[in-house]
Amino acid sequence: MEGRLEGRRILVTGASGGIGAATARAVAAAGGQVALLARREDRIAALAEELGGAAVPADVVDVAAVGHAVARAAEALGGRLDGLVNAAGVLRPGTVAEGDPDDWALTFDVNVRGLLHATQAAIPYLTAADHADVVNVSSMSGRRLGSAPMGVYAASKAAVHMLSEGLRRELGERGVRVAVIAPGIVETDIFAASDHETAHSLAARSRQIGLSADQVADRIVEVLAAPPGVVHAEVAMLSIDQ
Ligand SMILES: NC(=O)c1ccc[n+]([C@@H]2O[C@H](COP(=O)([O-])OP(=O)(O)OC[C@H]3O[C@@H](n4cnc5c(N)ncnc54)[C@H](OP(=O)(O)O)[C@@H]3O)[C@@H](O)[C@H]2O)c1
Known about the structure:
Elements: E1 9-13, H1 18-29, E2 33-37, H2 41-51, E3 54-55, H3 63-76, E4 83-86, H4 101-128, E5 132-137, H5 151-171, E6 176-183, E7 186-187, H6 197-209, E8 211-212, H7 213-224, E9 234-237
Parallel strand pairs: 1-2, 1-4, 2-3, 4-5, 5-6, 6-9, 7-8
Helix pairs in contact: 1-7, 3-4, 4-5
The structure holds NADP nicotinamide-adenine-dinucleotide phosphate.
NADP nicotinamide-adenine-dinucleotide phosphate is lined by residues 13-20, 38-40, 59-61, 87-91, 110, 114, 137, 139, 183, 185-186, 188-190, 206, 213.
């Protein structure tokens, strides 16, 4: 991987843990410069220091805060950004009959609107670059539902697939590639935020048969490092046991 992203300046959202943090490490290991966005400032500051990157704390739901954070990220990386990895996301299982409407709002606010906020703020930088990438971390559940309580989360991820398709058409001729990474279950802390039994069983399953965050991150680096002119429109990946 070393050197494959030399000279690239990549902003990663959701970089305080899981797939986003692993992606920041993998990008840096491949020679890229990174800016890290998430709410937990202590975590992204420590990782940025380790990787020689920039930490730009923000809540992706707050459109103004994201705008400022993206501008600060570009400034810290020499006035340029040529990659955005949208990895910030939440998972709150629940059926429609028994689910909490606040969870539905959070799911769409972070997974869909947050991704749009970060992407819109990054577009002026991405289109100014010679060539650039947006990599949206979706999920296999955006294409194939696992169980009823995952319906709302899966709907948010299906939206990410379709928004990415629109963005690919919007930005392709301006030199920006748009990719979707759709992993199956990955061993991260995402399940710990919910007390729903589905979250508990997914957490247990992720420990048994999940991909690692590093495996997903390596794939994201491959997508970022693909030869110019090649677009990884959708990359679905599972562990062999899933
Ligand atoms: N784990 C899986 O099985 C799996 C499978 C397929 C797809 N995915 C997707 O992969 C992505 C990363 O998830 P993960 O598994 O790595 O989970 P994770 O370890 O919980 O990481 C989620 C990241 O999103 C950030 N985040 C959450 N809400 C945010 C907000 N309002 N503003 C800014 N950042 C926010 C968190 O940072 P802060 O809390 O510090 O803000 C954290 O850095 C998500 O989009 C998820 O849907 C996960």
